[in-house]
Amino acid sequence: MTLGAADTRALEPWFPAASSDPGTLPEGLVNVQSRLIRSVSRGDLPDAGPVYVKLMTFPRCKDRLRYAFRTMPAAHEAAVLRHCAAAGLPVPEVLFERCVRRGVLPVTSMLVTAAVPVVPRAD
């Protein structure tokens, strides 16, 4: 699935908003789980429908150093999800990924995936 123009317009403000104030969710997102450096939120895009947004910030020096020379979390998870999908495994589709560094130090990592449809079980 590729993002349509309406999806892109809806998604555009999420990354800057999350980057400028990691403690506050961008408008239209609902918190699912939060930890010190990672949060998972749920939202809806006009065409893609329900999505999950995984945001990772690096507030502590030890977190920044840990990822200074590693692949950013969003890039790593996106690559693994694409690899699994290519192998035929049912995984969430990667819709958007963006990572920002200042020099080698990580600043923000964001991954947006489509929600996996829930298939009702037959009793």
Which descriptors apply to this entry?
4 helices
Explained architecture:
The structure is a single chain. By secondary structure, this protein is an alpha+beta fold. The chain has 4 helices and 5 strands; from the N terminus they run ααβββααββ. The protein has helices at residues 5-11, 14-20, 61-66, 73-86, and strands at 30-34, 38-45, 49-57, 94-102, 105-114. The longest helix has 14 residues, at 73-86.
How would you name the oligomeric state of the polypeptide chains in this document? single chain
> Into which percent range does the helicity of residues fall?
25-40%
Stretches where pLDDT falls below 50 for ≥5 residues? none
Q: Biggest sheet: strands, sense, closure?
A: 5 strands, antiparallel
Order of helices and strands: HHEEEHHEE
Distance between the termini: 32 Å
Total number of helices: 4
Shape: globular
Main-sheet strand order equals 1-2-3-5-4
Structural class: alpha+beta
Note the beta-strand portion.
25-35%
| Overall average pLDDT | 87
Radius of gyration: 15 Å
Write down how many β-strands occur, each being a DSSP E stretch of 2 or more residues: 5
